[in-house]
Amino acid sequence: MNMDFVLVIPAPAKKMIKYKPLPFYLTIKKSDVHGLGLFSLTEIPKDTTIGMTHIEIENDLIRTPLGGFINHADESNCIKRKHNNKWFLKTEKDIKANQELTLTYDLYKP
After folding, report:
1. Model confidence over 35-74: pLDDT tens digits?
2. 10 Å Cβ neighbour count for 15?
3. 36-40 and 100-103: which strand pairing?
4. Is 66 part of any domain?
5. Taking a C-beta distance cutoff of 8 angstroms, is the pair 53, 88 a contact?
6. Could you tell me if 26 and 39 are in contact, meaning their C-beta atoms sit under 8 angstroms apart?
7. What's the CATH number where 82 sits?
């Protein structure tokens, strides 16, 4: 018996959400600080909000990919700012292309 099938896929009712773990101007690569680190692909001006590093849900603090790859430095070039239950990474200095972004840890010590 010869049977032909046609697969019909309906169009999504809503716009699709694209997962972008990092802004387009950042990458992850080998770090001289520790393991892998977060690096700029372009210059990033001082006072730029990069994105969310952590979110607190009930009593759990969850790191995002951005928060998971930023390394500690005593003299860092970024800071964290809390808004409601979310922490955001913000540049504290001008960042050069190919420069590692660093943060002074204060939620826990390395």
Report:
1. 999 999 999 999 999 999 999 999 898 988 888 898 989 8
2. 6
3. antiparallel
4. yes
5. yes
6. yes
7. 2.170.270.10
Provide the residue range defining the domain that includes 50. 44-103
Report the number of distinct structural domains present in the chain. 1
Q: Are strands 71-72 and 100-103 parallel, antiparallel or unpaired?
A: parallel
Could you tell me if residue 93 is inside a domain? yes
User: Residue 8: inside a domain, yes or no?
Assistant: no
> How far apart (Å, rounded) are the C-alpha atoms in residues 3 and 69?
53
Contact 106, 76 (CB under 8 A): no
pTM here is: 0.76
Secondary structure (DSSP) of the chain: ---------PPPSSPPPPP-SS-TTEEEEE-SSSSEEEEESS-B-TT-EEEEEEEEETTEEEE-HHHHHPEE-TT-SEEEEEETTEEEEEESS-B-TTPEEEE---SS--
